[in-house]
Every structure is written in C-alpha cells, then in structure tokens.
Amino acid sequence: MKLQAGYLFPEISRRIRSFGAENPDAKIISLGIGDVTQPLAPAIVEAMKKAVVDMGSEAAFRGYGPEQGYDFLINAIIENDFNSRNIDLDRSEVFISDGAKCDTGNIQEIFGLNNVIAVTDPVYPVYVDTNVMAGRTGQANKNGQYSKIIYMPCTAENNFIPELPSPAVGRIDIIYLCFPNNPTGAVATKEILSRWVNFARDKRAIILFDAAYEAFITDPKIPHSIYEVEGAKEVAIEFRSFSKTAGFTGIRCAFTIVPKQLQAYTEDGRAVKVNSLWHRRQCTKFNGASYISQAGAAAVYTTEGKKQCRQIIDIYMANAAVIRELLTRLGYDVYGGVNAPYIWMKTPDGLSSWDFFDHLLQKANVVGTPGSGFGPSGEGYLRLSAFAKPDDVKEAMQRIAHSI
Amino acid sequence: MKLQAGYLFPEISRRIRSFGAENPDAKIISLGIGDVTQPLAPAIVEAMKKAVVDMGSEAAFRGYGPEQGYDFLINAIIENDFNSRNIDLDRSEVFISDGAKCDTGNIQEIFGLNNVIAVTDPVYPVYVDTNVMAGRTGQANKNGQYSKIIYMPCTAENNFIPELPSPAVGRIDIIYLCFPNNPTGAVATKEILSRWVNFARDKRAIILFDAAYEAFITDPKIPHSIYEVEGAKEVAIEFRSFSKTAGFTGIRCAFTIVPKQLQAYTEDGRAVKVNSLWHRRQCTKFNGASYISQAGAAAVYTTEGKKQCRQIIDIYMANAAVIRELLTRLGYDVYGGVNAPYIWMKTPDGLSSWDFFDHLLQKANVVGTPGSGFGPSGEGYLRLSAFAKPDDVKEAMQRIAHSI
Lengths: 404, 404
Prior knowledge:
Chain A is an alpha/beta fold.
C-alpha cells in the first residue's frame, strides 16, 4: 500500500485510450512500451511447432520439466552466450524462467528485509516496486522516492553512469545495475563494470545485473556479460531474456545466472550460498517455463536461428538510427540508440516529461515514455523505443519533424 | 533459511536415483509425483499449432498480451467454469497465470507479515514453505511444524476434513483449503464449505481455496467452486489450473479468481480491496502467461476440447479405481480416489511413511509419496497418484499384491 500511483505503463495506456476516444481518426504510433513488433524467426516457429506436436504424441509427451529448465536449452545458453566469451558456467548456475521481469522482481525475496538496496535514477520501476511491496523501504517522498533506498542519479553530466556511492551513504547490500540501460540506452565499459565489481567485493554487496538488452550491443569493446569482468562471479547475479533478443515478449522465456561462488551474509556474518537460496525459491514458488517456450528458445542458438534473430535485431537498430539521426538533426539532445534499442531524448524548452508526452501525443499522435516515470532524474527526458515497425518509425519521425 | 530440509519431491527423486543406480535393471513405476502422462488432447494441439504459426506471421504476431490474460480465455473460463454453475464473475476478477503453484505461492505476498495463517495437516508444502520464506513464521519444531502457523489435523477420524479452529486458537487471518484435497483425496460438501465461509466472515479471515483438482469430482453434489456457497465472494480467493485438468504441467497455464467484493483489513481496521492488491502484484512481478499456452487453454473449452479432456480424465479416474479396489481387496485402509486423482492409503503394520516408501520401492519398484512429507498427520500414510499410464498402474498393483 506504500506504492505510488499506478505502474507507469498502465498510466500511458490510459492517456492513449482517452486521446483515442476523443480523436477516433488519429492513427497513433507507439514508440512507448518496449514491446517487439517483428514476428518470430522461422527457425523458432519450426521448433515450437515440433514441440507442440510432441506434446500431442504418446511417445514424446512431457509433463513437468526439470525444475530449472531443460538441459538442451541450458547447454545452448552456456555454450553460445558464455563459453564464447570465455566464461565458464556450470549447468546448475543457469535458471530458466518465464521472464526477466519475474526474475528481477522475485530475486529480492531471497534476501532479508533489512538489506539496503541501491538503484540508479532513472530506473526500471520493477526493481523499486518489488522492494516496496516486500516491505524493504519506507514511505515515498514528494518526488516518488522511497526512504531506505539509495538512489544513484544518472544524467547527461555523468554520461548516465552512476557514481560509486560515497562512504557517507552508509551500508549498501544490493545494487541493481542494467546495461545496456533501460531507459537511457547507456552502456558500461569493462572498466566501469570492474569498478562496480570491486566496490561490491569491498562492501560484501551483491550486484543484480540486468543484461536483458545485451543482444543490441554493437560496439565490440562493450561487455555483454558482467562475468567478463574478473571477480564478478563472487558478487553478481545476471539476468538475461529472450523477450527482446528473439521477440519472446508473448512467448515468455528468460534465464538468470547465479554463480556458485556467490555468497551472501547473515546478520551475524555467516556466509550463505545464494545459488542454493535461489534454487529453493524457484523450486517452491515456480514450476518451470513452458516446454514449448524452451524449445523455441533453444532454436535461437541454431545456425539459422542466430542468423534470423540477428536480422530482426538489425531492423530494430536501423529504427534506432533513424530516430537518433532525425532528432539530432532537429536539434534535440539525444542519447542511447547505438548499443541499445532505446533513445533517451531531452525534452525541448524545459517541458516536463509528461507535458512533452502529451504534446507529442496530441501534435504528432506519437507515444513515447515519460522519463519522469523512471525516477526524478528522468524528469525532462522522454524514452523512445526502436521496437516499432520501420514504416511506423519513419512516419513518426516525419510527424515529429512537422509538429515543431 | 528457516526452511526444513529439501522440498519433498527432490528428496523422492534422490532416493529413486540412488535405488536405480544400485538396481539398474529395475523398472521403476512412479505413482509418486502428481504429473500427468497422457498426451495433450488433439483440439489443444491444433489450437497451439495455430498460435505458433500466428506468432511467425507479420499480421498475427502478438507481443506482450493483456497483463491479466486474453479475453478469449477469460470469457471461456467465466462461461464454462462459473456461469454454468450459476456464478457470475466480472472479467477483472479472473487472473490468468503460468501455474497454480506460482499463484498459491505468491498470493501471500500481498498480505502483511503479521497475518496468522492456518493450514491443514497434511498439506501441500507450497502453502507453508512460501510463508516461511516470506518471514511470516517462527522456527520449525521437531515435527517440522513452524511456530505462528495454525495446523488443522486431517485424519481418518475426522474424515480428512479439518475442524473449525476453537476460539482458544486466537486470531486467524488466512486459511488455506484445498478440495478435492491434495494429498488425501477428500472432498468438501456444500455444508462443509458453508461452515468455513461463515467462519471466515465472522473472523474477517480470507480463505485461499485451491480447486486445482475440481475436474476430477464425480459426485454431482460436491461443489466445484467455493463460490457455489453463498457469501464466499466476500471471503474467498479460488485457484484453478489446467495442469491436471488438461495435461498442462509442461505447458503452464492456470488462473486465480479474486472477487471484487473481497476485502482485507489493515492493522488499524481500514478495508482494502484485495483484487487491486493482486492486480498490482501481478502487474509488477509477472508478465503474463504465454500466448501459446493461453490459446491451448481456450481450446479446453471448445466442444471437442471438453470431450477429449473428459476422456483423459476418465482414464486417470479408471486408474484410481484400479488402485483403490486392489488395495482394498488386499486389506489396506484406503481413502480418496473417487472425486480426486489421489489415493491416500494407511501404511501396514504401523510402518512410517518413509519406511513404507522404501519398502515399496525396493520390493515392488513402485514409487509413492510419503504422507509424512505433507505434515505430521500424514505420518503412517502414503499417497498414490492415478496420473500414471493404465498399464503401469495395473503392473504396479500386481507387483504390490505380490510383494506382501
């Protein structure tokens, strides 16, 4: 009940419905919610069709799967996403789930309510809201920020990379980081991640590293996994998802890496293996991802699947380039969109995020996501998503060009 | 960390693996974990194949679905499962999810940690373990029962129906009931459910009613939904699942009913709508069930789907009859198996549940589920599941007949 008014996206939907009701002829183009628009790759469709047929056959039917996912998928993940980047993982360190939102939301359940969390500002609301719901925070202030949470501002001034908290901030137990970042599109170099890993090792803190957008990295120097940084396995949990990588927002499949070395500490200083805690949590409150979704996810790693998924990502990143270039040409301050599917733009004329949202909706019939919905440091920004259809992106950009 | 040693089913798996390693030629038949074995009904397979093809097509692709599920499924549920039994529900009272284990495990998150829960003994471990994990209980005693939980014994003496707690027990806020019962196979008449609904209304308590096995009811007098009882919408949440009804253990789809009338109360007595709390919880920590699973679930309600699913349930219930009859003929005390897919048998000669489990594994190579795994009142019982293949059930019964 401490939670602030409705989750960001439902509020956006409400305003769109309201505008649409008053303007039934308007063709609204959404660059708002980060939902994919390209159909699934053919290799994935074929694999899922086969899985469905299997489920209807006496010989191949499968009931409950292995609790943490099928080996065929876990092995493909380890080989393609990690071994290829010189990261060794044991199968027991990979937990298949039905979504990174669930995993990043549920992970806090295995930690005590007295732990202090740190988040960036702006931030993906799920990190904060799930901690509020668990009772780990105090009340919200007038900015919508909760007491007992450490907020780390990310603005153009620091290139959207949070500073390490100063000792004056006090105890920090759990740090949420997301790179490539939602919403700012910022990425972290190896040096930046090393700094955080060392900080976490010093403080006995745990990093919750959300890498849901790693597939959109184009710069070969940017790490895709936090485990590319030495020592990260001692302090970091990594979240991955097929939602954006392979268009699985409606299919539901993701995974979380919890290294066996990773330890948390009880209040009296006893070390506890986090892998076992998460394993027990998942065994008790989750019953596995759909076999069909897992079969589809495994196809992402086949030769055809990789090629086809890459083509789809290229479509989205071409959209990102179109958005970036037009907005830059129009004189806006624009960030992200190079290694991430999100463009983070400064609103013009000092408009608030919601005022600029309303302006774009009314004048261009284009929907963005108000930056202030991600936290007070997002005020004065708007997030545009590259996940729309290319023709829609082009039309949206033309309309924006004409509306100013 | 308060949780007792491993979750029941992993421990069973461990013993089976260990026995199998020493006896590689043994053909073990599992009547243990309640997992389905019949392939999906053809109507479901067809619907899911179409859904997969849709997801690969430009025109029919769908990303994130409506947060609480597709209307095509919600409408089918309301019409077939509720309107047909004279229960009205609004669409906003139905929450589609990926499993009843998740829902019955997650539901406690929306209630304060000071609430007192009551569970039957024996009980489906998820109800208890999720409350322990949330911090709502004290430590376990030597029987494995946690302080701050009210346990309601269910034994042959009370026909496996818990008594209403006496006033001496003190405050009760949340009552978990499961009918048809897992593990005992007991069912509750309308009179029994009315008694509980009235008790909850008196105490301002909430009933969490797990009806995952309602499809197995054969007696027309037994209610399938707690909402068949007057006043239940004021006090009860109901959980349903396609896992056993339609063989979805590997597909993942379920739903939960949270009536709008249902209120909880803050510590200072303010009424709060539970529907809104659950809606917010699901919006924040869950991202919807797979479109393919929902498409398959909707096919359960088509004319063909109903007929085909009924045939599959009949196969399982025929298994239940075979198990019941043979064990009764052998002189065992046997319960359940008439309106439920579980048979709850008394162990012979005062053997403990695990000793009888080991005995059956070693002498008959048949796996049951030790009753004590469900709580101390389950000690001296074994649960047998009717979800095996008919030939396996017959062979298992022959082996049991010869092993004594």
